[in-house]
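Per-record layout

source: Rhodopirellula islandica
name: Argininosuccinate lyase
length: 460
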Amino acid sequence: MASPSRSGVFQAETDARLEAYAESISFDSRLYEHDIRGSIAHANMLREVGLLTEEEFKLIRDTLETIRGELDRGELPMRFELEDIHMHVEQALIDRIGDTGRKLHTARSRNDQVSTDTRMWIRQSLDEIDALLVDLQAAFLSRCENDFDVILPAYTHLQRAQPVLAPHYWLAYIEKLERDRQRLADCRKRVNQCSLGIAAVAGTTLPIDRHHTASALDFEGITANSLDTSSDRDFVVESTFVLSLIASHLSGWAEEWILWSTVEFDFIQIPQAFCTGSSIMPQKVNPDTLELTRGKSARVMGALQTLMLLIKNLPLAYNRDLQEDKPPLFDAFDTTRAMLELAAPIVRGAELKRDSIAARIEKGYLDATTLMEWMIARGMPQRTAHHLVGAIVSEAMQQDVRLSELPLATYQKLSDQIDESIYEVLGTTNAIAAFRSEGSTAPARVREQIQLWTSRLENA
C-alpha cells in the first residue's frame, strides 16, 4: 500500500529502496504517546471550532485510545511504507473508522505534528533529567556531614594547591549540577511552545484555535511564525547542548574519582557493585562504570555536533533533513539518563580512605598560601610575602620537613616580622580554620552551605 502522504499528483509507485531509505518509524515510534495525545487535543479543537461533530470527535478519540493500547502492547505492526509514527497512527485510525479518520489531519501537517511531538517528548525528558540531577545533588549532600572532618588536597594543574574540607568538594559538584538544572529550566521555556496549527509552512485558512490546543497539551504558549516554526530545531539543539554540559560535568567527576581510586592517590574506594575485574589479572578491581561515564559523555557531545551540522545550511522552511534530528537527540537523552542513574548510587556508596588521606595530607605544603596571607595581614605587601614564602618552602624542601616543623629561628632569619604566632596557621588543620571568605572552605561557611542546600533540595 502506498503512503497516505502521496496525493493523486503521483503517477508512479514509490521505489521500495526509497521506502527503506526514507523511513523513520524505526526510531520515531517512541513518540507515539505524544502523537496520540496531540491528535486527541487537535481533534477536540476541531470539534470546538465546528470542523468535527461531537460524534466524530468521540469516535476519533476512542479509536485513538484503542490504538494507543495496541502500541503499548506492541500489537500494531510497523511498516516502512508508512514512513513514520504519524502516518502509522493515522492509517490505523482510517482503517478502523474510514472517512471520519481522514478528517483528523484537517488544518495540520506532519511538519507541525513532528515539531509538537518532539517538543512534548523533550519537555518530559528534561523533567526526568532534572529529577535525576536533584537525586545526584542529594547524594553529594548526604556525604557532607559524615565527611566533615576529612581534609582533602585541592589541586590546580593537578598539583597539590590548598587544603579543603571534603564537604566543600561535594558542594562544588552540587553547584555545577545546579547550573545544569537552571539551564534545563531555561531551555524548557523555549521548548514549551506549541507548534500545532502552523500546518505545513504558511498556516491555514480554516478557523482553528491554536491556544485551545496549546492549553490542552500543557504548553505555555504558541509559536509565533509559521515559517520559523516549520524549520525550527533550535529547541532540539539547545536541549542537547544542555545535556552536553551535564555530560562534561559527569565526565570530569568520573575522571577525578578514577584518579582518586588508584594506588597512587588512594583517596577513595568505589563500590564494588559498580566495578569489574580483569580476565587475566585476578587482583584488579576496575572502576569501569566511571570509565564508561567518561567515554559515553563523548556520545552526548557528538550528538550536539551532529545536530549543529544538520541545521547549518537549511533554507526556510521544512526540509527532510530534519528527520535526522531524532537519532542523536534520543541517544543524547538516553545516554545522559543512564549516566545519571548510575552516578547517584556510586556517590552514596563510595568510601573515603581516611587513613591514607590523613597520612599524606601534609605533603605538598598546602599551608603555604595561608602563611603568605598571614604575612599580608601583618602589613607585608603581597608580592613580597609571595616571594618570601617561596623561599621558606624551598628551605623546608631542602630539609625535607613540613612548614610547621621549621624552627622559629629559620623563619626569623628570613624575616624579622615573624614571631611564634606563625605556627597558629601552619598545618592543614590550622590552615582550614584560618579561612574566612564567603564561598571558601572555612568550616562555618561550609556549614552554612550545607544548611542552605539541605533546605533547597527539600523543596526541589
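summary: The chain has three domains: 4-106, 111-359, 367-458. Strands lie at 151-156, 159-165, 193-194, 221-222, 268-269, 351-352.
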